[in-house]
Amino acid sequence: MTKNCNQCKKAKFKRYMFMVKAFIMACFRFAKSGFKATPMGIYEERLSICKGCNFLNRRSMRCFECGCKVKAKAAMSTEQCPLHYWPKLKGKKRKLNA
Questions:
Q1: CA 69, CA 79: separation in Å to the nearest integer?
Q2: Of 63, 57, 62, 59, whose CA–CA distance to 83 is shortest?
Q3: pLDDT per residue over 38-91, tens digit each?
């Protein structure tokens, strides 16, 4: 099978659409929370966990499991690691400066 076959293109498109949907849902949850961001210490801890994970593409800082940019996802208090390495936050969060 070549890289340009229709089956490969369909699989790539399906993966891309999954990432788009996940991004839209994450943005919706984040907006619904009032744009409550992760406290800085927890944000840095999340990034540290991601940097030690085998599912991280270190060049793009994108998770191979969910496709998200980890710096953005870690900053959203409403989001969690798809592999359950860090949870979404409950309770007090900091509000992003507009």
A1: 12
A2: 63
A3: 999 999 999 999 999 999 999 999 999 988 999 999 999 999 999 999 998 876
- Note whether 6 and 66 are within 8 A (CB): no
DSSP string, the chain: --TTSHHHHHHHHHHHHHHHHHHHHHHHHHHHTTSEEPPHHHHHHHHHHHHT-TTEETTTTEETTT--BHHHHHHBTT---TTSSSPPP-S--EEPP-
* CA-to-CA separations, 81 to 20, 69, 84, 98, in angstroms, rounded: 17, 11, 5, 26
Which pTM does this prediction carry?
Answer: 0.77
